Amino acid sequence: MQQNWQRWGTGVIGASVLIGLVAHILGMQLMVIGNLLFMLGLALVVVGAVLVLARGHLFTGWRHRRKKGQDPLPGEKVDVHDVATVKNSPIRVSPGARFSFLTGFGLIIVGIVLTLF
Q1: Quick one: angle between helices 4-25 and 95-116, nearest 10?
Q2: Of 52, 50, 42, which is closest to residue 108 (Cα–Cα)?
Q3: pTM surpassing 0.90?
Q4: 4-25 and 30-54 helices cross at what angle (nearest 10)?
């Protein structure tokens, strides 16, 4: 059974192929359509990588200067002795990142196939 992000990913790939076919019928060359889909796929892969890195606790343990009386920042609430445990936690890939990767790689493959024709 497909999960929600898988349905959306295959739907976006299918819709982009249909839009590409309509654009080809209207006179656009297949190579141009393939290049556009390839670039859109690359952009979605980058978005997926950013979404994965956003949950990576990259800035855990950094010291932030604050003014007197100011509440601690969220990054300061981790104890110094627990920083390594938090930073070495497993990589978590959110459903949004999975959607971006699936759709991005799918559009890259479709773009390559269209460029070859």
Answers
A1: 30
A2: 42
A3: no
A4: 160
